[in-house]
Amino acid sequence: MRKYALLISLLIIISAINLNAQDDNEKQLLKQFHSITSEEMSGWLEKLCSPEFNGRLSGTPEFVASAEWVASKLKEWNIKPAGDNNSYFQWFKWPYTIINETGSLTLNLRLSDGSVIRKNYQYPNDFYPGMNSGSGEITAEVVFVGFGVTAPELNYDDYKGIDVKGKIVLMNRDVPHTDPRNPEYKKWVAYCYHQYKLENAVRHGAAGMLYVDGASANPNITYDPSIIVCGIGPQPLEDIFAGIKTTNKALIEKIRASFKPASFNTGKVMTIKANTTRVNEGRACNVIGYIEGTDPVLKNEVILIGGHLDAVGNAGRVVNGALDNGSGVVDIMGAAKALAQSEIKTKRSIAFIFIGGEEVGLIGSKVYTANPSFPVGKSVVFINLDMVGNGTGFYVSAGSSYKEYLKYFEQANAKYIHRPMRTAAPEAGEYYGRPRSDEVVFRTAGFRTMAMWTTEATKKVYYHLPGDDTDAVTIDIMEDVAKMIYLALTEMANDPEIKF
Ligand SMILES: [Zn+2]
Predict the structure, then answer these.
(1) Domain span at residue 36?
(2) What are the tens digits of pLDDT across the range 90-116?
(3) What are the C-alpha distances in Å from 411 to residues 405, 491, 496?
(4) Within its chain, how far is the Cα of 473 from the centroid?
(5) What is the pLDDT confidence band of residue 436, given thresholds at 50, 70 and 90?
(6) Which of 32, 161, 265, 451 is the one with CA 20 to 30 A from 379?
(7) Is position 368 within any domain?
(8) In the structure, what pLDDT confidence band is assigned to residue 9 with cuts at 50, 70 and 90?
(9) Are 333 and 35 in contact (CB under 8 A)?
(10) Of 262, 279, 296, at which residue does a domain stop?
(11) Is residue 441 part of a domain?
(12) Are residues 302 and 404 part of one domain?
């Protein structure tokens, strides 16, 4: 009997120790959890959106300054550098264009008596200066060229039988084909890119280009000094089609139904003025830091979390990119600081990548995946955050094969955060079958990937527009995103076995 009594009291003591250890663990976990505050995070967001960074356009000294600031925070939190030569930075050359003035867009209407009346359009609602436009002024007739595509192998040419030399071409985004699930669509992908469309216009001798893109900032377009470019909104488009018995929308639908171009001379004369300076010696970078794991073996496995740091710059009015993607950057910073200062040390390593060059063509993620700081084979997952700070709910996706990864986030939310959360395993970040996010670049390079965003937006989204400022985000959900990442990554990095 005494023997049993002894055994039982021993068991009680052991389980008490265990419970204590568990309590301590949870205490430590929650201590860091509560250290993540929206006050601190909004301070960081304000810094990212401050005039000194001027819209963080890749290539500019202001982008570099924002990268240096993020790196200084990583250093402050004792997060180790994982960029080039033991620095936080992975550099690449990136020329850029300064928009000296917003320029102008004017319709010149010739009346029957020969006089001309001019209608000037307003920046930024009616037109947006081409962010890699050549500098100068062009007055010429506007020629509608559909999608601006020349694809002989597809028996399709928007420029066939129409002379655009010295003229202004008017074209739309995307391509005639609209169904990415159709295998035929793949053949069209190369013609989707803004770069291609501009280069094709130049090949055909156009001197100006009007891009139907809702008049928004688009630095993801080729620079060619011989062509003056601007984006246009609904009003000038309506005026171009005035007196013509069709609309841009109707023509697009017609082309899409028939796969036959519908190009024509509009007879309208417009003037585009641009004042730009090209800077060839620009450079940009990724900022990379990591927390080294404590397990001698598992520390070689790295969980990567990243989001793009760059935004679309200043074309007269700054686009501070608070939601796109100051939100993702600040979410990661909040989690990074908490993870770095946590008393719970993780077995695996965790790396933070603040990506440059996203808005100019997913350049930073291509640079990283071509020359990764940690081997692909040892990278557990890359988690991308883009526009994660407007709404009341979460969306967490895991590329279709990695459903197991969702559980760390589901558990964190169920236990501590309690937000509406949707999870899925779709191929996120793809749009019409071509990469539209850093996540897809990583996946294409062989990384397992996930992505996070916020749902049920409660504020207006100013996508690539001057309104994307600190008041365009909901800071309380950003705090919760940072907390969820902190919790989920702590669990994931300490899980003895992660199922792939
Ligand atoms: Zn973005």
Answers:
(1) 32-95+280-494
(2) 999 999 999 999 999 999 998 889 899
(3) 11, 10, 17
(4) 16
(5) confident
(6) 32
(7) yes
(8) low
(9) no
(10) 279
(11) yes
(12) yes
Q: Write out pLDDT tens, residues 383-432.
A: 999 999 999 999 988 865 677 888 999 999 999 999 999 887 655 444 44
Compute, in angstroms, the gap from residue 324 CA to the centroid of ligand 1: 5
Question: Is residue 211 located within the same domain as residue 326?
Answer: no
Peptide bond into 124 cis (omega under 30): yes
What's the gap in Å between 327 CA and the centre of ligand 1? Answer: 10
Taking the centre of ligand 1 as the mean of its atom positions, its distance from the CA of residue 391, in whole angstroms, is 16
8 Å CB contact between 425 and 398: yes
In tens, the pLDDT along 241-282 reads 999 999 999 999 999 999 999 999 999 999 999 999 999 999
pLDDT at 7: 60
Report how far residue 384's alpha carbon sits from residue 447's, in angstroms, rounded to the nearest whole number: 12
Cα(309) to centroid of ligand 1, in Å? Answer: 9
Amino acid at the residue 441 = V
Q: Ligand 1 centroid to 358 CA: how many Å?
A: 7
Residues 313 and 425 in one domain: yes
> Does 18 reside within a domain?
no
Looking up residue 182, the CATH number of its domain turns out to be 3.50.30.30
**Distance between Cα 322 and ligand 1 center (Å):** 10
**Whether 138 and 207 share a structural domain:** yes
Centre of ligand 1 to C-alpha 308, Å, is 7
Ligand 1 midpoint to CA 464 (Å) = 9
The Å distance, Cα 454 to ligand 1 centre, comes to 13
CB distance 173 to 288 below 8 Å: no
Give residue 317's pLDDT: 92
Q: How far is the CA of 449 from the centre of ligand 1 (A)?
A: 17
CA of 311 to the centre of ligand 1 (A): 7
Question: Ligand 1 mean position to 310 CA, how many Å?
Answer: 8
Residue 325 CA, ligand 1 centroid: distance in Å: 5
Is residue 373 a contact partner of residue 379, using CB atoms and an 8 Å limit? Answer: no
| Sign of the alpha-carbon torsion through 293, 298, 300, 306 | negative
User: 58 CA to middle of ligand 1, Å?
Assistant: 13
Q: How high does pLDDT run on average in the chain? A: 93
Confidence band, pLDDT 50/70/90 cuts, at residue 303: very high
- Predicted TM-score of the model (pTM): 0.92
